[in-house]
Please model this.
Amino acid sequence: MVFDYSVENNNNMSNKKIAVIGGGISGLAAAYSLEEMAQRKGKSISITLFEKNNRIGGNILTERVGDFLIEGGPDCFLSEKPWAIQLCEWLGMGESLLRTNDEYRRTYIYWKGRLRELPEGIMLMIPTRFFPLLKSDLFSLAGKLRMGMELFIPKRKSGGDESLSEFVRRRLGQEIVERVAEPLVAGVHAENPDAMSIKSRFPRFVQMEEEYGSLIKGMLAKRKIMLNSESGKPKWTMFMTLKNGLDELPLTIVKALKMTTIITNKEVSEINKVSGYKIYLKNRDTIDADVVIFATPSYETGRLLRGLNSSISDQLDTIPYVSTATISLAYKKDSILHPMNGFGFLVPRVENRRIMGASWVSRKFSYRTPDDSILIRCFIGGSRNEELVFLDDKDMLKMIREELRDVMGISAEPILTRIYRWEKAMPQYIIGHDERVSRIEQSISKYPDMFVTGSAYRGGGISECIKNAQLTAESVLKYLNL
Ligand SMILES: Cc1cc2nc3c(=O)[nH]c(=O)nc-3n(C[C@H](O)[C@H](O)[C@H](O)COP(=O)(O)OP(=O)(O)OC[C@H]3O[C@@H](n4cnc5c(N)ncnc54)[C@H](O)[C@@H]3O)c2cc1C
Model:
């Protein structure tokens, strides 16, 4: 789906007031899409965006310290989901898009006391190449044979949702669950694969099983299509970022907004409705709006709506969240013996470590450190070890340095450290998530002038948040007859 923002001419002002609550990427992309789509139709609209913090961007947080560029929250977006790249290009940021350093495109898994390379050809968690898998010391021979049997395992007869663990175990066996799928979803989504919905998080795996009867066959077919459609070097790498940091995206959106008033440092405390909406701010100001878009975490949307409709609030509260933290440590290059020959490592739960994984940032992307330094970004918390997020800074650093010592043999003093705690920032798409969200959408549809968008519902990454914000903007304009 490509959103076309090209302009039609026919000037007309709507006197309806649109309120967007939340200045993360979802709220900003919704405001931007509303403006662009309205402008395309020659219409003018009035939007007010409320953000409780004194900065916009929500989870997107980039810090610059001397020549170091540190991402506190997300550090990239997936090119396979094209909406972030499309938006960057539309905003004139095409030149800022930054590929990963392909020569380091390798991931390691910490297994039985040391880092082992994830065999080449494992796409997400599906093996597609025979020889690298055969040579790998990450899996047993029985585990490898079990993966190969996937080609002959019939597809499931009954429909319905399954956990990621059940699905992957059924198709590819237990070793791929515990050594690849579990650490991958813990590292990326902070989720527990035993509870995670396969249908909501990996719908294309379900489609592949349905269409090809096998994930391996499905992935090979997909790879063939990709190779045929690409002549020469593909334009994008799997993970893409922005040269000057991901916060360039929200900052550029803010600069591009013309019909939106952004109010930062103002927390919305409640919403009510008489004829139109009344938005109550924490400082007791009240603002009127005709249409409200909630781009806040679902539990926060629930809190704001409790006075208006407690049953919708209760439904919103059924989407669980977990907390995580990222800890970035920089070192002088010559103090580290580890070759860091990849993008980083993941740690399976069964290894019983406190660290979930780490990105070798200075390998993955250029322009992140001075030449004589390296940067490592570690992940902790999530459904596995949430309590660690609340260690104080001193204990947190002590803990993470012990982990890096054990996993990578690093005992040097870091020259720079940063800790970012993300309290209740990761929505968990547990089994039945799609149905849960459909019920919420149905309840909210009783209010045709109220919309929800954001990472809690239909895709948790930046790119999906952008797509969903664009769809929300379309629905708002449709409601307004614009
Ligand atoms: C540590 C971490 C790493 C991640 N890594 C990646 C990654 O590499 N790639 C990727 O694609 N995705 C990643 N994600 C997910 C991605 O960050 C989110 O999907 C996305 O940023 C969510 O955007 P959002 O606007 O929906 O929500 P948020 O970013 O949470 O924005 C919501 C905003 O609403 C504001 N708000 C809340 N309550 C109120 C109120 N009452 N009044 C006014 N304002 C309010 C908040 O302050 C916030 O600014 C990561 C997330 C985390 C936490």
